[in-house]
Specification:
five-stranded mixed beta sheet; globular; 5 strands; 5 helices; alpha/beta
Amino acid sequence: MAPDATTPSTSAFDDVLTANEAYAATYHARGLEGRAAKHLAVLTCMDSRIDPLATLGLVPGDAKILRNAGARVTDDVLRTLVLATYLLDVRRVMVVAHTRCRMAGGPEASVHEAIAGAGGPDTRSIAFLTTEDQEASLRADVQRIRSWAYLRDVAVAGAVLDLDTGRLHPVC
C-alpha cells in the first residue's frame, strides 16, 4: 500500500525506530504496575534538557510525569491529576519549572512574534501562558492545584530547576 498525504514517511523516523529496537532488546519495565510507586506526579516543562526521573532520583514506575511548555497547570493537567490521584495512587504533586525557560522569558507577544518570524502562522488565538515572573506563576499554579475541588488530600509543592547546576530551588 502506497503512503498517502496523511501517512508519515517512516524514513523520517528511522533513527528512533532503530534505537527502539535496541531498547526493546533489553527492555526491563515489563510487569511494572501502572500506579505511581512513590505516590508522586511531576509536572515539568517539555524542555529536552530536563530528565525528570534522574533529577528527582526516581526510576520508571515511581511517578507519573506530565510535561508541557512552561510546566503550567492547565485544564488538561488538572484533568490528568484527577485520574492520577483517584486511579493511579498519586498523593503528591510537584510542579518543576526551570531556569532559562522560553515561556518565562518575556511577554506572550514575543512568542507569537517569534513563531511568525520563523515562518509560522498567526498564533494570536493561542494562549501560550508565558510569564515574566516565573516564581509568582509557579505559586499561582501550585495554589490552583491545592484549591481545585476535584483534588483533596494531595500534597503539592513547586520548585525551579537550575539548568546550570541541576539543583532544585523550592519555591512553595
